[in-house]
Amino acid sequence: MTAAGVPRPRVTVATVVARDGRLLFVEEESPDGYVINQPAGHLEAGESLAEAAVRETLEESAWRVRLTHLVGIYQWRAPNGQAFVRVGFAAQPLAHESGRPLDAGIHRALWLTPTEVRAERARLRSPLVEALLDDWLAGSRFPLSMTHLAK
């Protein structure tokens, strides 16, 4: 919280992973039932944005990835007033760890076409999911060097 009692934005990362015309998503529990999201989560103390994206993708989907680009940076205020800043990355899948347990609350990882994602619009976790998808589909790609962990 800030001094004025306004919640500080939560910094999150998300990853668009493409393979054979499909994109990696996770189905996760929410108070409203199962929702669809890119592999995503919160930045932890001491880690870079890129490290967080790789870690969250592995923890939520059991896929090891290599980041290729920064796609965009997004802001959103949820209906409950919580603010989020999401940093979206693009990545290549490297290896699937099939025996790896997924994070608590993650029901399953799934590969969807963009058309299938659009058909599930009502189940997207937040507008951030579609904003990142739209930018990735439009070809938004920036060098990873645009993100830095100052030492």
TrEMBL record:
Enzyme Commission code: 3.6.1.-
GO terms, molecular function: nucleoside diphosphate phosphatase activity; ribonucleoside triphosphate phosphatase activity; thiamine diphosphate phosphatase activity
Keywords assigned by UniProt, alphabetized: Hydrolase, Magnesium
Enzyme class: hydrolase
Assembly and oligomerization: Monomer.
SUPFAM superfamilies: Nudix (SSF55811)
UniProt xrefs under PROSITE patterns: NUDIX (PS51462)
The protein's name in its UniProt record: Phosphatase NudJ
Entry annotated with the keyword Ion transport: no
Cofactor(s) the protein needs: Mg(2+)
InterPro entries according to UniProt: NUDIX_hydrolase-like_dom_sf, NUDIX_hydrolase_dom, NudJ
Family the UniProt entry places it in: Belongs to the Nudix hydrolase family. NudJ subfamily.
Listed CDD domains: NUDIX_Hydrolase
Nudix hydrolase domain boundaries: 7-134
Gene label: nudJ
